[in-house]
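Saturday, quiet lab. Running sequence design on the structure tokens for the scaffold JK sent over.
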């Protein structure tokens, strides 16, 4: 069993998607192992602050783990978990001794340890001798295993450990009390696994329900498929403008004007005025909003459902999933691409804006 501890916000500028991509990248590596347990640390609610919450407050871990089961991966909220021994046998597949009570004693304060110097035959009895005495035949000593059933938050794993002459070949140590959290790469490699992960990760019901309630104020969701809903992800906040202006070696004001005009041109050629269009942005102060308003487009500005920026981004992500027509996105934005993968890509028409200007 591979147990890892992940720090998803090692830096103060760890935004929502950066934290999500940290989990994604780690899972993409872990899927190659047999059993994978990933303990996740705190989620940063607002960049450049000390405001955190549990990852279980953001992601519906039960639903997400149902999806990840096919990859033998389980996500665990480090600050809200239980660790138990559900079963333990010592012997072969057909002839074994129930040693659950003995093995349970090796779990103390979320630390489980059986060292390879421990003689299992002395602790649990020798399965070879027990079988010979009780049934009159011998079992192959090379086939004797220690099989332990673990549970983390009631999700069960069964691990088989090799033995030799009554000793484990390797130590069994799972220290969940004194972990060392490591960061990972923040990376989306656009593989099938990455796209599937981003599409299927489930956020808590508070996010999905409030997004649904908001969309119900725009259209009757009973007739969702009969309505065209466009979405525009507008990345025109000051931090974004300053970053990409620097990348393009332009003054921020000039860069913002160029990008605003790019949005307006795409809207003119792609979106009908009578179609419902949802705008996702953290800052509504820009010329694109002015253009939509002055030209009588049927557009909607979702309220910020949380004062913390990264929490508000999760709500926006869930609202954006209702897009079923034109989606104007930023090629260089992790939020734009994450939302793209979460949409029904069979029906949407993605239109990309490139912030790295040629």
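Result came back. Writing it out in full:
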């Amino acid at each position: 069993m591979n147990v890892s501890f992940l720090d998803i916000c090692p830096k103060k500028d760890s935004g929502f998607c950066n934290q999500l991509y940290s989990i994604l990248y780690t899972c993409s590596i872990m899927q190659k192992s047999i059993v994978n347990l990933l303990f996740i640390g705190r989620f940063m609610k607002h960049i450049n602050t000390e405001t955190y919450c549990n990852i279980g407050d953001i992601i519906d871990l039960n639903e997400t783990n149902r999806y990840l089961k096919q990859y033998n991966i389980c996500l665990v909220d480090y600050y809200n978990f239980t660790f138990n021994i559900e079963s333990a046998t010592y012997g072969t597949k057909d002839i074994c001794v129930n040693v659950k009570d003995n093995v349970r004693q090796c779990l103390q304060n979320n630390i489980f340890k059986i060292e390879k110097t421990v003689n299992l035959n002395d602790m649990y009895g020798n399965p070879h001798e027990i079988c010979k005495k009780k049934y009159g035949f011998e079992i192959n000593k090379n086939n004797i295993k220690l099989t332990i059933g673990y549970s983390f938050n009631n999700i069960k794993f069964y691990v088989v450990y090799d033995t030799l002459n009554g000793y484990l070949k390797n130590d069994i140590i799972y220290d969940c009390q004194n972990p060392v959290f490591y960061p990972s790469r923040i990376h989306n490699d656009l593989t099938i696994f990455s796209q599937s992960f981003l599409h299927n990760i489930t956020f808590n019901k508070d996010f999905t329900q409030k997004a649904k309630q908001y969309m119900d104020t725009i259209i009757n969701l009973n007739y969702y498929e009969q309505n065209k809903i466009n979405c525009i992800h507008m990345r025109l906040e000051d931090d974004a403008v300053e970053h990409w202006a620097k990348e393009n070696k332009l003054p921020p004001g000039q860069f913002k004007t160029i990008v605003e005009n790019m949005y307006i041109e795409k809207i003119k050629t792609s979106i009908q005025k009578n179609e419902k269009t949802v705008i996702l942005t953290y800052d509504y102060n820009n010329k694109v909003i002015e253009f939509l308003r002055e030209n009588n487009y049927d557009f909607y500005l979702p309220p910020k459902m949380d004062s913390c920026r990264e929490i508000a981004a999760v709500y926006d992500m869930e609202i954006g999933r209702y897009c079923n027509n034109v989606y104007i996105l930023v090629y260089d934005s992790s939020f734009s691409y994450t939302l793209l993968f979460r949409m029904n890509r069979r029906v949407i028409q993605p239109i990309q804006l490139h912030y790295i200007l040629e």
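Notes for JK: The chain has a mean pLDDT of 93. Residues 252-270 form the longest helix (19 residues). Ask whether to fix the surface positions before the next round.
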